[in-house]
Design brief:
Blueprint: E1 3-5, E2 8-10, H1 21-32, E3 35-39, E4 42-46, H2 52-61, E5 67-72, E6 76-81, H3 84-94, H4 96-99
Antiparallel strand pairs: 1-2, 3-4, 4-6, 5-6
Helix pairs in contact: 1-2
């Protein structure tokens, strides 16, 4: 149940207690995504070192229609989408300049 945050590991609810999965996904995207680059039906999300696992988990739990699955490394999340169009749409939603404006 421990989660990784920018300042280190935290118990759930100590810095963020989201009431919905949408809020949790928005918060994780806002906190971790540095860039979002579509490549065919895939989306490459760059994070600070150590941020990919937390972001990947939030995406997996976010029940996004565009997402088939994710693979998370240390600072990169590979998101597999159903097609090119869905990858590009999700990239627009996850761009740092976009998700900071679209708070839940």
């Amino acid at each position: 149940g421990v989660v990784k945050a920018k300042s280190g590991y935290e118990l759930p609810g100590t810095s963020l207690s989201p009431s919905t999965t949408k809020h949790s996904l928005w918060h994780s995207t806002n906190q971790w995504v540095l860039s979002a680059t579509p490549a065919s039906n895939q989306l490459v999300l760059r994070t600070p070192p150590g941020g990919a696992q937390a972001l990947g988990l939030a995406i997996d739990n976010g029940d996004l229609a565009e997402v088939i699955g994710t693979i998370a490394g240390d600072d990169t999340v590979l998101v597999i989408c159903a097609n090119d169009r869905k990858a590009k749409s999700l990239a627009r939603k996850m761009q740092p300049s976009q998700h900071q404006r679209n708070a839940p």
